């Protein structure tokens, strides 16, 4: 069973699990299916807004799609969440991505 099939099997039992949905979105990116990955990240962040790592990956996906304004908004939301959670590592990554894009 490949990773994608395995994730779908696990999600059948735990459809709202943020880790599994994040992992599935990353697999979709690896397969070149950015629209599906975007849908997964957006849904995940709607249900679990404190799942801070997904902001970075969604922002990068939006950058690749040429949607810099939305990517900046995602990075800003992620930085706000990282500050709230006290996650300095995520905050630094999001700030660097934001700064690189806004230059």
Explain what this protein looks like in three dimensions:
The termini are far apart. With 103 residues, the chain is mainly α. The mean pLDDT is 96. Helix 4 runs antiparallel to helix 5, helix 4 runs parallel beside helix 6 and helix 5 runs antiparallel to helix 6. It is built from six helices and no strands. It is globular and about 40 Å long. It has one domain: Serine Threonine Protein Phosphatase 5, Tetratricopeptide repeat (Alpha Horseshoe), CATH 1.25.40.10.
**SS-based structural class?**
mainly alpha
CATH topology label: Serine Threonine Protein Phosphatase 5, Tetratricopeptide repeat
Any low-confidence stretches, pLDDT <50, length ≥5?
Answer: none
How many beta strands in the DSSP annotation? Answer: 0
Count every helix, treating DSSP H or I runs of 4 or more residues as helices. 6
Q: What is the CATH H-level superfamily? A: Tetratricopeptide repeat domain
Q: In one word, what is the shape?
A: globular
CATH architecture: Alpha Horseshoe
Task: Tell me the helix content.
Answer: over 70%
CATH class: Mainly Alpha
Rounded to the nearest angstrom, the radius of gyration is: 14 Å
The separation of the N and C termini measures: 44 Å
Q: What is the H/E string?
A: HHHHHH
Average predicted confidence as pLDDT: 96
**Biggest sheet architecture:** none
Total tally of structural domains: 1
Strand content: under 5%
Short summary:
81% of the residues lie in helices and 0% in strands. The model has no long low-confidence stretch (mean pLDDT 96).
What topology does this entry show?
Blueprint: H1 3-13, H2 18-30, H3 34-47, H4 53-64, H5 68-85, H6 88-102
Helix pairs in contact: 1-2, 2-3, 3-4, 4-5, 4-6, 5-6
């Amino acid at each position: 069973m490949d990773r994608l099939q395995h994730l779908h099997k696990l999600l059948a039992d735990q459809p709202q699990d943020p880790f599994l949905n994040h992992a599935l979105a990353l697999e979709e990116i690896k397969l070149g299916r950015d629209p599906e990955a975007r849908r997964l990240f957006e849904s995940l962040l709607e249900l679990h807004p404190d799942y801070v790592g997904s902001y970075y990956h969604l922002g990068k996906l939006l950058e690749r799609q040429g949607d810099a304004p939305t990517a900046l908004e995602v990075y800003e939301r992620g930085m706000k969440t990282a500050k709230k959670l006290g996650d300095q590592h995520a905050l630094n990554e999001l700030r660097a991505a934001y700064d690189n894009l806004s230059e």
